[in-house]
Amino acid sequence: MKYSVEWKDNALQLLDQSRLPHEERYDVLSTVSEAADAIREMRVRGAPAIGVAAAYGVVLAARESEGGTSEVRKAAIMAAIDRLATTRPTAVNLFAALNRMSTALARSEPADITSRLLAEALLFHDEEKEATSAISSNGASLVPEGATILTHCNAGAIATAAHGTALGAIIHAYRLGKVKRVIATETRPLLQGARLTVWELVNEGVPTTLITDSMVGHVMHMMGVDCVIVGADRIAANGDVANKIGTYGIAVLAHAHNVPFYVAAPFSTIDMSISDGQQIAIEQRRETEVTTFGGQPVASGGSDVLNPSFDVTPNSYVTSIITERGILSAPYLSALSAMAKNQGRKRG
Amino acid sequence: MKYSVEWKDNALQLLDQSRLPHEERYDVLSTVSEAADAIREMRVRGAPAIGVAAAYGVVLAARESEGGTSEVRKAAIMAAIDRLATTRPTAVNLFAALNRMSTALARSEPADITSRLLAEALLFHDEEKEATSAISSNGASLVPEGATILTHCNAGAIATAAHGTALGAIIHAYRLGKVKRVIATETRPLLQGARLTVWELVNEGVPTTLITDSMVGHVMHMMGVDCVIVGADRIAANGDVANKIGTYGIAVLAHAHNVPFYVAAPFSTIDMSISDGQQIAIEQRRETEVTTFGGQPVASGGSDVLNPSFDVTPNSYVTSIITERGILSAPYLSALSAMAKNQGRKRG
């Protein structure tokens, strides 16, 4: 198991995902500024991994503030939380993690701010590990024997700081002997599929076929695909799913070919505060991600360039949502509400 | 107007499309071997342009054979035709051109083989120029005022040795003041959209937006697209369309968004000898087109890689087929048959 985010030797250790698969480098981060940059520049990526990295980023801010008065420290840590919140807009796990750290900060005693925040970050990380373990097992139960599964982008161990969501389910199903082959889309512009998903699957020994994003329809039509499993960056209360750009097109193609379309995500990815996907902020990233390829300019100049990092798949295209608490089907608003309430009771 | 294929100074002049947009280089080809390599390596690409280049390639073979007996020469030229036919399997224009050259060869007198074949190639080229001019005008008539048009790959002047098919129609509509914006997909793996379509559109002053192939669904949903216009590499008798990989996915998305999906192609692209798209040979190209860029590896190793150059869009997703002889709608079998018969009568 490769971990992309770890707290080790009093510092945040991050696998630099932008260098994979050519270089497997771990960076040691000791300031919140470094953590914010790593998230913004996608050296750490994947909604659950971003959340965990941000939680540890708050711990780094607490360490940097040591020596000040309690009030000055709390103000500095709150400023750091605000700063981390501006790094990326779409993945809700980031905000869920920062909210927890903010609450923990408010409840901490002056003498133990750092240790209280570190304990909260470690607990959050442990919960995410447990969640992805349960998601892997729940998701694998949906995979038929001898399955060809298609996935998009990377929702693997390195995206989640633990077992992976979509890829966790796929690898779990493979270990159960149910998977014949995985089709991985390359996932332009940043090629998380070609670089990261293929790397994780091949490391696990899973027979894998790499395709460009444009080949999904042809592959469904000619080879047959038994199910699609993808991750999510935010899920609205009605089950609309924000995920890597291209997910929506795959969902429409899956629908046209009667292929089940599954979304695997921890409950922390679900944002019950928004009613539907239209309200999810879609991050627009640099044009150069599109106009260059592997660092080299590829496009003719003079045009506008769009680079939305995510799209929204309407709930009507989602066969099931796989969470650590169970597998949900439409109607999602009532299913998600019931699950959120049950969890509230368990905690209370 | 940029021409990609010309007969000039007793040689075949080809714009090397693989170097665009960074370098605008014309190669002078004087042997059929060079012509075959240029087609196979996609230095000349686009179904109509391939046909014209192959016709001139046969002329080069005739010149190379000069000095031999008539029988030896005809055998050498037939071998050259067979060789050119193996360069690429999907675009039917290649075979249509070679059939014409073969017939012209059979009818030529020993003394004037080269001049007879050159005359036929020039005539074929002129007919393709006229055809794309009529296609541009016919296609533009379908474009509504203030249109946002999406196109895939490159079906422009350089792909057709003349005015372009899909891009010809779009540019004609732009000159008529009907086009607000063109959305061009980058078109992995060889990026003909980012490199060639953007280059042609920007040269013509058309407001253009470049997107990755994976953004089509998001753009249709969020920005609105008034119609899709693409080219074709082969159209079966029932109206099924083989075109650049990714076309099928765009057609399904267009259908889901009630966006008209138009295919623009010369009648030489229609293959009445096959009943449906399942019978169209789909070219599989090198894995390294997907796994490397500019010679640099971009994907993790160890997986299989698919690289079909084309896919087939079923006729049910095709709103209209735009040809030089008119605009056709479903049912395509009867419409295409009637058009083929009328032309037969005109010629006869």
Helix content class of chain A? 40-55%
Structural class of chain A: alpha/beta
Radius of gyration of chain A: 20 Å
Q: Give the number of domains of chain A.
A: 2
**What kind of sheet is the major sheet of chain A?**
7 strands, mixed
Class of the largest domain in chain A, according to the CATH hierarchy? Alpha Beta
Examine the coordinates and then state which fold CATH places here, giving the name of the CATH topology of the largest domain in chain A.
Rossmann fold
Number of helices of chain A: 12
Instruction: Determine the N-to-C terminus distance of chain A.
Output: 34 Å
The CATH architecture of the largest domain in chain A can be given as: 3-Layer(aba) Sandwich
CATH superfamily of the largest domain in chain A: Translation initiation factor eif-2b, domain 2
Can you characterise this structure?
- Two copies of one chain form a homodimer.
- Chain A has helices at 32-40, 47-64, 70-85, 92-107, 113-140, 157-160, 166-175, 192-203, 216-222, 247-256, 288-291, 332-347, and strands at 5-8, 11-15, 26-29, 147-151, 179-185, 208-211, 227-230, 234-236, 241-244, 261-264, 270-271, 292-293, 296-297, 304-305, 310-313, 320-323, 326-328.
- The first copy, chain A, has 348 residues and is α/β, with parallel strands linked by helices.
- The first copy, chain A, has two domains: 5-133, translation initiation factor eif-2b, domain 1 (Four Helix Bundle (Hemerythrin (Met), subunit A), Up-down Bundle), CATH 1.20.120.420; 136-347, 3-Layer(aba) Sandwich (Rossmann fold), CATH 3.40.50.10470.
- In chain A, the strands form four sheets. A seven-stranded mixed beta sheet of chain A has the order 6-5-4-7-10-16-17, sandwiched between helices.
- In chain A, helix 2 (47-64) runs antiparallel to helix 3 (70-85).
- The radius of gyration of chain A is 20 Å and the shape is globular.
- The mean pLDDT of chain A is 94.
- Chains A and B meet through helix 8, strand 6, helix 9, helix 10 and strand 13 of A and helix 8, strand 6, helix 9, helix 10 and strand 13 of B.
